[in-house]
Design brief:
- The complex is a heterodimer.
- Chain A is mainly α.
- Chain A has helices at residues 2-20, 31-37, 50-53, 58-61, 63-66, 87-95, 97-104, 113-117, 137-145, 148-154, 161-167, 169-175, 185-189, 209-214, 218-224, 228-234, 242-246, 257-270, 272-280, 282-288, 297-301, 321-326, 352-398.
- The termini of chain A are far apart.
- Chain B has twelve helices and three strands, in the order E-H-H-H-H-H-H-H-H-E-H-H-H-E-H.
- Chain B has helices at 18-42, 47-55, 59-90, 107-120, 134-158, 160-163, 170-200, 210-213, 218-224, 226-235, 238-241, 248-278, and strands at 12-14, 215-217, 242-243.
- In chain B, helix 1 packs antiparallel against helix 3 (59-90).
- Chain B starts with 11 loop residues before the first strand and ends with a helix.
- The chains are: A mainly alpha, B mainly alpha.
- Chains A and B meet through helix 20 and helix 23 of A and helix 1, helix 2, helix 3, helix 4 and helix 6 of B.
Chain lengths: 399, 279
């Protein structure tokens, strides 16, 4: 079989060589010519592929072989030039992080066209068997981005994000619920012109995140746009965007206890003072013990449409406190809301009464324990000697 | 040690009657329960606190238990106050208010404390203590004061809606601080100082079961509280105070309860100190 094919190929190439002697241009080899030698498994899917279906021949992609003078061609053919047909996506790819990595280092494992789309078996993205089918893309990106060795070799700072994505609400929507409306990698990062998050052109650049998430979560985005975070961001200051609270790849459902407790820490990454004073108070202590039926940041301050305290629309504006506290404490009145949930025992300006009470209590504790510390330290050796004396006299009595 | 039958009949004196023992037992149960359910909240950011709260069913359960123990302790306190008032007003036992049988601090307590310090360093004999020593009085009043402070602030925090009808909200801030700090004082004090004075000091180690059995050996009384002994002998009331030694069963119960309480207390104080050092 093999020798038969080789013989056919030899005859074919000899024939084309002979023909070439008469023609000015050598005739391009037909698919049958190529298949004379290349009967391997790699070519099997070709007729079913999008290119096969479109009637493309081998040399449409392996263009350099169309003009080859010698068969079997002695050298490895040049990489196919996808751009000759797909100019626009390749142009965008060329700007992206993968192409740049390859330009800097030709040995980089960064993805080429074939890296994501495959080669002879390319299927249209709408085909459920395609590597770039909406529900398959995460797996395709994950072949490199979820491979520890590649991550190390390519120096991918974000680490193994597919592992986080897999368990996220988006990942689960894709893999378990089969939702094609759920976002995959390219929904946020784009497909061809992928840029690092630090690049202002990237949809996941910090300031672009609300717009990116807002493409699906439009209602939340509208609400967010009214928030103090959005205002600060618009003014060029650092402020929380979606991913700062929800994380990027490991986004979890928000109606579960674990999220309710975890998001407190997210607020606390920026609002350090507030989380400290929250943890010093009852609400923060109970939630630290895993109790969820207790106020967390967003219960009092709001979430996406969070306002500054001075804003009359804020839930924590003095005029709204009775209503806000009253959501959990039905009896809340004007007296009740004079409780300070962020009282700071260290801050004499903010909480003088708490400050002095705390100082007084600490003084009481220090006084009691100092006195009894000395009392005990002096009594111990004395008591030890008493015990020894007693056991000695008992010993004599027994003897 | 000789077999019990060969031992001469031990003469013991009744120091705490059944009522006192029962109240102290309930006080212990409530106090241990309150500290086991309360300290995890005070040190909520410590890992052990989160594990402990989880083991006991989460804060949702411990918060209910804490209020149950608090109710028990308030009941114990009320029962004790009722008994004291009855003894003073109905039985006219004015000796409860002043004198050698009273828990009220008196000048001699200051004198005996000074003498005790001199004795510690070998500059004098052991003071001639009476029925209640100065440190026992301190323990009693510390609990008394703690009941008012912790109980009062606890009730404020339990019923904020009720109290905010006439108290400004910042009072709850103060109640919260006071409740936690005073609870810290009370637990650490009981689990270190009270344990040492009453049970763990070498002469008593590992424990003194008198609070469980109510009975103290006559020789021990003579040695430790010579003034009380002398009073009993002089007044001729010693005979009426003499009771038989505790039954083996009562002793065993006392040792078991005391052991559990001491171990739990020491565990809690260890965790407390650990959390304070980590802070």
């Amino acid at each position: 079989m093999r020798t038969g094919a080789a013989r056919t190929a030899l005859v074919a190439s000899a024939l084309s060589f002979a023909l070439g002697a008469f023609a000015a241009e050598p005739a391009a080899p037909t698919d049958a010519d190529c298949l004379g030698c290349h009967e391997g498994a790699t070519l099997e899917p070709l007729p079913d592929s999008v290119h096969g279906q479109a009637g493309l021949s081998c040399v449409d992609c392996h263009a350099d072989l169309a003009r080859a003078a010698e068969f079997p061609h002695p050298d490895k053919p040049a990489p196919p030039q996808c751009a000759s047909c797909h100019a626009e996506p390749v142009e965008r790819y060329a700007e992206g992080v993968h192409a740049r990595a390859l330009r800097t280092n030709a040995d980089s494992p960064a993805a080429t066209c074939a890296g994501c789309h495959g080669s002879h078996d390319i299927l249209p993205a709408r085909d459920p068997a395609s590597r770039t089918y909406h529900l398959n893309l995460a797996g395709t990106c994950g072949r490199c981005h979820g491979d520890e060795e590649t991550i190390r070799a390519a120096g991918i700072a974000a680490g193994n994000v597919p592992a986080q994505f897999e368990d996220s609400i988006h990942g689960q929507a894709l893999s378990r619920r089969g939702l094609v409306v759920a976002p995959n990698c390219s929904s946020c990062h784009r497909a061809h012109d992928i840029h690092p998050a630090a690049d202002a052109r990237s949809p996941v650049f910090h300031a672009n995140v609300p717009a990116t998430c807002g493409r699906c979560h439009e209602g939340i985005r509208n609400e967010y746009d009214t928030s103090v975070h959005a205002q600060a961001l618009a003014a060029g200051r650092a402020a929380a965007v979606c991913s700062d609270c929800h994380s990027a790849h490991g986004i979890k459902a928000t109606d579960v206890p674990a999220w309710r407790l975890a998001v407190i820490g997210e607020c606390g990454t920026c609002h350090e003072e507030s989380i400290r004073t929250y943890r010093d108070g009852f609400h923060g202590q109970a939630s630290a013990l895993g109790f969820v039926r207790v106020a967390t940041c967003s219960d009092c301050h709001g979430d996406h449409g969070i306002r500054a305290e001075a804003d009359a629309a804020s839930q924590v504006h003095p005029a709204n406190l009775v209503a806000t506290c009253g959501r959990c404490h039905p009896g809340a009145n004007a007296n009740f809301v004079r409780y300070d949930p962020h009282a700071d025992a260290r801050d004499r300006e903010r909480s003088p009464a708490v400050y002095w009470t705390s100082r007084l209590m600490k003084l009481l504790l220090a006084g009691v324990f100092t006195f009894f510390g000395v009392h005990t330290a002096l009594w111990f050796p004395r008591s030890w000697r008493e015990r020894e004396a007693t056991s000695r006299s008992n010993g004599r009595a027994d003897g | 040690m000789a077999a019990p039958t060969a031992e001469p009949a031990r003469r013991t004196v009744l120091r705490f009657d059944r009522y006192d023992r029962l109240l102290h037992g309930l006080l212990m149960a409530a106090f241990l329960g309150l500290s086991l359910t309360g300290l995890p909240l005070l040190f909520a950011d410590a890992r052990w606190a989160q594990v402990m709260a989880g083991l006991s069913g989460g804060y949702g359960v411990t918060s209910v238990l804490h209020r149950l123990f608090a109710t028990l302790l308030i009941g114990v306190f009320a029962a004790h106050l009722g008994r004291v008032l009855r003894r003073v007003y109905v039985h006219k036992e004015l000796g409860l208010l002043w004198g050698p049988d009273s828990l009220v601090p008196q000048p001699r307590d200051v004198v005996q404390m000074a003498q005790h310090f001199r004795y510690f360093v070998g500059l004098g004999p052991r003071p001639r203590f009476d029925r209640f020593t100065y440190w026992e009085k301190f323990d009693y009043w510390a609990v008394f004061w703690g009941m008012g402070i912790i109980g009062g602030s606890g009730l404020l925090l339990w019923f904020p809606g009720l109290f905010s009808r006439f108290l400004p909200g910042w009072v709850f801030n103060l109640a919260f601080i006071v409740h936690g700090e005073e609870a810290l004082l009370a637990t650490v004090f009981i689990f270190t100082v009270h344990f040492f004075n009453g049970h763990l000091r070498p002469e008593k180690f590992p424990m003194d079961t008198v609070i469980f059995t109510g009975r103290v050996d006559l020789h021990e009384l003579e040695h430790e509280r010579p003034a009380e002994y002398a009073r009993l002998v002089a007044s001729g009331r010693l005979e009426e105070k003499l009771v038989g030694p505790p039954s083996p069963r009562l002793r065993r119960v006392g040792v078991a309860v005391g052991t559990v309480a001491i171990l739990l207390g020491l565990a809690m104080v260890t965790l407390t100190v650990y959390a304070l050092l980590q802070h």
